């Protein structure tokens, strides 16, 4: 460690150092996902603040030949020390820009601790004795200064998203996994239900996946998901190389800016773009506290019902003898530790296989169908067969009348030849696991104790 000290420029004074190289220290409040530029470099964009200036936040552009060399934030309120960054004027603000020949940086844990060793440094960074002083002052200041997600004209809840738009989303990152070669997926949640989507009339059961990832998540992951509220899948494609090796914010809250939302196979999907920025939030952030408060109030008000349903809603189905039973979600079915059981759920009947009513019965005369069911938390396949199907359809033997009822259940409309909108229905769903040593992998679902009344 060298004994010299550095001269640190306050962020509010950057305008006095235009086109010159400066040393800065600040709290990182936002970052972009590292990606390849149009040239040979990789880049990330940081937003930093210090005691002298919190608004506007100062932009820092970092470029590296190797993506692993870019700063990779680890937690909320982490501190970055920037050495010999050039001050440029861009978009009406002064920014700090990395220079390959002269610049370097170091990242420090933002929490109060006696450890002043940076957890990441660029190759040419060297420590000075004075660094400890700057980091300590920044840590102490951050502990007494409140920071929040800020305001945004584009901030929405999942319950209010619309197709093909860019949004700002405050959410918890539940999980991150690699779904194929260097393609990653984030699983995020804000405690609300994403809107139920219309489906194309021609899309049958074989074209409706249960989830966007090719294979379902393992039980040990699903067991850590909330039982209520939509978990949005966010795609990160191969442009963001080694994303999972560097993204460390899991089981924490963030604000994702400029997240692109779209629909795929009747499911909501988020997509990271070059304009996407991520802001790490504390659990004491006003927006986080508000989300968790609303979630608890929702459970107290209506239990596990989808948010668009009231306890007095009318359905096309009924569950005789189970009207007073507590409603649960499909996520609860997927994660139940029981070997067998039955739950009452409010779901949508998305598709039936076989699709033709005249094929509902097997050659022996017994009903046997596979139904695709959906609620805001999950999709499953459930069988409807034999005595359960007899109870479901009752005495309806006329093929044409049965087709009309099923069309209503599947959301068909004579006035719309393109789209269908399955209504919400109540049903009992039984389950059993054929292997007690593999409860979830061997689990099967079936509709029971339910009657079609439309």
From TrEMBL:
Q: Name one GO biological process term.
A: regulation of telomere maintenance via telomerase
Q: Which InterPro entries match?
A: NA-bd_OB-fold, POT1, POT1A/B-like_OB, POT1PC, Telomer_end-bd_POT1/Cdc13
Any one cellular component term from GO for this entry? nuclear telomere cap complex
Q: Which domain of life is it from?
A: Eukaryota
Q: Where is the Telomeric single stranded DNA binding POT1/Cdc13 domain?
A: 8-143
Q: Which cellular compartments is it found in?
A: Chromosome, Telomere; Nucleus
**Molecular function, one GO term:** telomerase inhibitor activity
UniProt keywords (A-Z) are: Chromosome, DNA-binding, Nucleus, Telomere
Kindly list any coiled-coil regions of this protein: none
Similarity comment text for this entry: Belongs to the telombin family.
Name-wise, this protein is: Protection of telomeres protein 1
* Originating organism: Coffea arabica (Arabian coffee)
Q: Which gene produces this protein?
A: LOC113722894
